[in-house]
Amino acid sequence: MGAFVAEVALRWSDMDAFGHVNHARTITLLEEARADLLFTEAERQGLLGMAEGMVVARVVIDYHSPLVYASKSLQVQMSVRDLKAASFIVDYTAYAQEAVATAETLMVPYDLQAGRPRRLTAEERDFLAEWQLEPAKSESHRA
Prior knowledge:
By secondary structure, the protein is of the alpha+beta class.
Protein backbone atom coordinates (compact mmCIF):
# COMPACT_ATOMS: atom_id res chain seq x y z
CA MET A 1 0.00 0.00 0.00
CA GLY A 2 2.80 2.43 0.83
CA ALA A 3 3.06 5.34 3.20
CA PHE A 4 0.50 6.20 5.87
CA VAL A 5 0.02 9.96 6.30
CA ALA A 6 -1.01 11.60 9.57
CA GLU A 7 -1.64 15.28 10.23
CA VAL A 8 -0.58 16.39 13.71
CA ALA A 9 -1.53 19.80 15.11
CA LEU A 10 1.23 21.95 16.56
CA ARG A 11 0.57 23.53 19.94
CA TRP A 12 1.89 26.85 21.18
CA SER A 13 3.42 24.94 24.11
CA ASP A 14 5.57 22.94 21.64
CA MET A 15 7.77 26.01 21.09
CA ASP A 16 10.98 26.63 22.95
CA ALA A 17 12.77 29.85 23.88
CA PHE A 18 14.28 30.06 20.38
CA GLY A 19 10.87 30.34 18.67
CA HIS A 20 10.78 26.91 17.07
CA VAL A 21 9.35 23.54 18.09
CA ASN A 22 11.61 21.94 20.69
CA HIS A 23 13.50 18.83 19.57
CA ALA A 24 11.92 16.65 22.26
CA ARG A 25 8.44 17.88 21.30
CA THR A 26 9.14 16.82 17.72
CA ILE A 27 9.58 13.26 18.95
CA THR A 28 6.25 13.56 20.78
CA LEU A 29 4.59 14.77 17.56
CA LEU A 30 5.98 11.73 15.73
CA GLU A 31 4.59 9.55 18.54
CA GLU A 32 1.13 11.05 17.98
CA ALA A 33 1.41 10.28 14.27
CA ARG A 34 2.54 6.72 15.02
CA ALA A 35 -0.45 6.24 17.35
CA ASP A 36 -2.70 7.20 14.41
CA LEU A 37 -1.21 4.33 12.44
CA LEU A 38 -0.64 1.61 15.03
CA PHE A 39 -3.67 2.24 17.21
CA THR A 40 -6.36 4.25 15.38
CA GLU A 41 -5.92 2.82 11.86
CA ALA A 42 -5.29 -0.69 13.19
CA GLU A 43 -8.47 -0.50 15.29
CA ARG A 44 -10.41 0.86 12.29
CA GLN A 45 -9.37 -2.31 10.45
CA GLY A 46 -10.50 -4.50 13.39
CA LEU A 47 -7.06 -5.06 14.92
CA LEU A 48 -7.07 -4.27 18.65
CA GLY A 49 -3.94 -6.00 20.00
CA MET A 50 -1.39 -3.36 19.04
CA ALA A 51 -2.93 -0.84 21.42
CA GLU A 52 -2.53 -3.34 24.24
CA GLY A 53 1.27 -3.24 24.17
CA MET A 54 3.85 -1.77 21.84
CA VAL A 55 7.12 -0.20 22.99
CA VAL A 56 9.85 1.88 21.37
CA ALA A 57 13.19 0.09 21.62
CA ARG A 58 15.18 2.73 19.72
CA VAL A 59 14.58 6.14 18.18
CA VAL A 60 16.81 7.96 15.69
CA ILE A 61 15.95 11.40 14.36
CA ASP A 62 17.63 13.80 11.96
CA TYR A 63 16.49 17.42 12.02
CA HIS A 64 16.72 19.17 8.64
CA SER A 65 15.29 22.62 9.35
CA PRO A 66 13.56 24.42 12.22
CA LEU A 67 9.89 23.66 12.71
CA VAL A 68 7.99 26.81 13.63
CA TYR A 69 4.62 27.06 15.31
CA ALA A 70 3.31 29.27 12.47
CA SER A 71 3.10 26.08 10.37
CA LYS A 72 0.12 25.06 12.58
CA SER A 73 0.49 21.37 11.70
CA LEU A 74 2.96 18.72 10.79
CA GLN A 75 2.31 16.18 8.05
CA VAL A 76 4.02 12.89 8.87
CA GLN A 77 4.49 10.18 6.26
CA MET A 78 5.23 6.76 7.76
CA SER A 79 6.17 3.39 6.35
CA VAL A 80 7.25 0.05 7.81
CA ARG A 81 10.46 -1.83 7.11
CA ASP A 82 12.46 -4.69 8.60
CA LEU A 83 9.28 -6.50 9.57
CA LYS A 84 10.42 -9.42 11.74
CA ALA A 85 8.74 -11.91 14.06
CA ALA A 86 9.04 -9.68 17.13
CA SER A 87 9.99 -6.21 15.88
CA PHE A 88 9.68 -3.74 13.04
CA ILE A 89 10.91 -0.28 12.12
CA VAL A 90 8.67 2.71 11.40
CA ASP A 91 10.27 5.31 9.12
CA TYR A 92 9.03 8.92 9.23
CA THR A 93 9.36 12.01 7.10
CA ALA A 94 7.84 15.08 8.75
CA TYR A 95 6.79 18.02 6.58
CA ALA A 96 5.77 21.62 7.21
CA GLN A 97 6.04 23.08 3.68
CA GLU A 98 9.38 21.20 3.44
CA ALA A 99 10.88 18.16 5.13
CA VAL A 100 11.84 19.24 8.64
CA ALA A 101 12.87 15.85 10.04
CA THR A 102 13.34 12.20 9.20
CA ALA A 103 13.29 9.51 11.85
CA GLU A 104 12.96 5.84 12.60
CA THR A 105 11.72 3.91 15.61
CA LEU A 106 12.38 0.27 16.34
CA MET A 107 9.07 -1.06 17.67
CA VAL A 108 8.62 -4.19 19.77
CA PRO A 109 5.24 -5.75 20.62
CA TYR A 110 4.99 -6.14 24.38
CA ASP A 111 2.90 -8.29 26.69
CA LEU A 112 2.08 -5.90 29.53
CA GLN A 113 0.71 -8.61 31.83
CA ALA A 114 3.74 -10.90 31.43
CA GLY A 115 6.13 -7.94 31.41
CA ARG A 116 8.10 -9.08 28.36
CA PRO A 117 8.30 -8.74 24.58
CA ARG A 118 6.06 -10.94 22.45
CA ARG A 119 5.83 -12.00 18.82
CA LEU A 120 3.63 -10.24 16.32
CA THR A 121 0.44 -12.06 15.46
CA ALA A 122 -0.23 -13.03 11.85
CA GLU A 123 -2.92 -10.33 11.69
CA GLU A 124 -0.50 -7.68 13.00
CA ARG A 125 2.13 -8.72 10.47
CA ASP A 126 -0.42 -8.51 7.65
CA PHE A 127 -1.50 -5.03 8.81
CA LEU A 128 2.09 -3.79 9.04
CA ALA A 129 2.97 -5.30 5.65
CA GLU A 130 0.34 -2.99 4.10
CA TRP A 131 2.55 -0.02 4.99
CA GLN A 132 5.81 -1.32 3.54
CA LEU A 133 7.14 0.65 0.60
CA GLU A 134 7.76 -1.16 -2.63
CA PRO A 135 11.44 -2.07 -2.95
CA ALA A 136 13.33 -0.07 -5.54
CA LYS A 137 13.91 -2.05 -8.70
CA SER A 138 17.57 -2.62 -9.41
CA GLU A 139 18.98 -1.24 -12.58
CA SER A 140 19.51 -3.76 -15.33
CA HIS A 141 22.98 -4.27 -16.75
CA ARG A 142 23.57 -3.24 -20.31
CA ALA A 143 25.29 -5.67 -22.67
